[in-house]
Design brief:
Strand content: 5-15%
Structural class: alpha/beta
Order of helices and strands: EHHEHEEEEEHHHHHHH
Largest sheet: 5 strands, mixed
């Protein structure tokens, strides 16, 4: 991607210090998190993380979401322009990508007579805090609708390249654009509607709803890519390779398991590639209606 001339977004924060398990405390809640993280981790998206953390918070605090305890991470808010010398190369890259999403979605919202409200990118290392509870590197990047922020341990980009075999700057940008896609769904009310429907659904049905959420975020990431005007030859292939690598069926096979469709929460490799491609080819958010698609 041609990002050299792009500005860095000012909508970010850097968490300093170790977040630990924070408000969850010890005992059963901490043990349950340890059991759940391997199943949740190393995935894109927010749904499974938010649901799991919400349930754990309910169990730990008797129904008060993230009540009790105080944040144990220190947060450094974004510095004024010209005073960002402490940003790492990966953070700078991520903020340039974020700025392009603000431009693209700002234009799209204006086309519909609306004003886009940007998300905030929160950087942390290994562990941190989010409005949805503890942020752990094993979770992978995720969006928290409770505080409307994206949480990113930038070491994940190394995992994307080494573990998932998906190198390239566009593959990394796709990760961020996917999470911004969840922010768009949040602003549209989609996340709230789906979460409400999932409460009264069975596990398989709730997972199927979550797949549609994730595939739409993939398509929205493609819309962003198409509309940036910054893509270069090979970028689409990088994005599709990343989408293929993180399909539920592929991840389950790599874990030595037989793919179980009822357990899928993000979609198959074929589905993820198809919806990302649709967004990349059309550049139209209206083409991303996964909820009414026949497949």
């Amino acid at each position: 991607m041609r990002l050299d001339d792009e500005q860095e977004s000012s909508n970010y924060e850097i968490q300093r210090g170790g977040g630990g398990m924070g408000g969850f405390g010890g005992g059963g809640g901490g043990n349950l998190i340890g059991m759940l993280l391997p199943m949740i981790g190393s995935r894109f998206g927010c749904g499974g993380i938010v649901i799991a953390l919400a349930v754990l918070a309910f169990l730990q605090f008797g129904g008060g979401l993230m009540s009790g305890g105080s944040p144990v991470t220190q947060t450094e808010q974004s510095a004024p322009a010209g005073e960002k010398g402490d940003l790492t190369q990966v953070q700078s890259f991520s903020l340039k990508v974020l700025h392009t999403t603000e431009r693209v979605w700002g234009d799209i919202f204006r086309e519909h007579g609306q004003t886009y409200q940007p998300t905030v990118l929160s950087f942390y290392s290994q562990s941190g805090r989010s409005g949805c509870g503890a942020a752990q590197s094993a979770m992978g990047p995720f969006y928290c609708p409770l505080d409307k922020k994206i949480y990113l341990d930038t070491d994940f980009f190394n995992e994307l390249r080494q573990r998932f075999g998906a190198p390239g700057d566009f593959a990394q940008a796709y990760v961020i654009a996917h999470e911004v896609g969840h922010h768009i769904q949040d602003l549209e009310g989609t996340l709230g509607q789906v979460n409400q429907a999932q409460r009264s659904a069975g596990e398989a049905q709730a997972n199927a709803m979550q797949v549609k959420v994730e595939l739409q975020a993939d398509c929205y990431a493609g819309v962003w890519g198409k509309r940036t005007g910054l893509m270069e030859p090979g970028d689409m292939e990088e994005g599709l390779r990343a989408a293929q690598a993180i399909g539920d069926d592929t991840l389950q096979r790599e874990a030595g398991q037989r793919p179980m469709p009822d357990s899928f929460t993000h979609g198959t490799s074929e589905q993820r590639m198809a919806w990302l491609r649709r967004g990349l080819e059309t550049g139209d958010p209206a083409s991303c209606d996964t909820f009414n698609a026949r497949d």
